[in-house]
Amino acid sequence: MPRKTIALATAVLTAALLAGCASGGAAPASGRSGSGSGGTGTSSSSTPTAAAQTRAEACTTLRAKVEDSAKGLQSLSDMQSDPQAAVARLEEFDRSLTEGIDAVQNADVKPKAEAFQTAYRDMVAKIQGMAKDPQSVDVSGFSTSAEQVQQAAKDIDTVCAD
Q1: Which pick of 10, 25, 37, 70 has the fewest CB atoms within 10 Å?
Q2: pTM across the whole model
């Protein structure tokens, strides 16, 4: 049962990540979407302010920061054979997510990304618990956590699709 739960964790996590912040559901070619266009054509290497960063720009920025790390999670087959290595990759994704969230200033996107990270961290904590003590798996708690990650990923996908 614990191995099946860990395999389920891998599948749920991968699906949520790929559907949400690693998805390509944003950024029309014009780079303008959503509320407030703030800055117009000025290019700057600094992070835009909340008023100046469009939703499309914020989604593109977030996606760019987490995409490579999310790809690494797609092949988390070592979750069963080497749970500690898998947890290390999950933590690496969290660091990439933090970098992405730090670069997002858009008021529509940032709270969705932060909510995803909160749900993600809760699920990773549950996975870490499974790795340490597979016999004490709380399937119900994990399922709830996984659902929260999936919903948060959908919320990002929705805000980035507009």
Answers
A1: 37
A2: 0.71
The CA angle 65-10-59, to the nearest 5 degrees, is 25
d(CA 144, CA 20): 18
Angle between the 2-19 and 55-74 helix axes, to the nearest 10 degrees?
A: 150
How far is the C-alpha of 20 from the C-alpha of 122, rounded, in Å?
Answer: 17
How many helices (H) and strands (E) would you count in the chain?
6, 0
Looking at the domain that runs over 2-38+50-161, which CATH code has it been given?
1.20.120
pLDDT digits (tens, 9 = 90+) for 101-123: 999 999 999 999 999 999 999 98
Phi-psi region of 73 (alpha: psi -120 to 50; beta: other; left: phi over 0): alpha
- CA 9 to chain centroid: 15
* Phi-psi region at 43: left, alpha or beta (left = phi > 0; alpha = psi -120 to 50): beta
Q: Is the pLDDT of residue 43 over 90?
A: no
Which residue is it, tokens 């029309």?
A: 28
Among 12, 26, 25, 24, CA closest to 119: 12
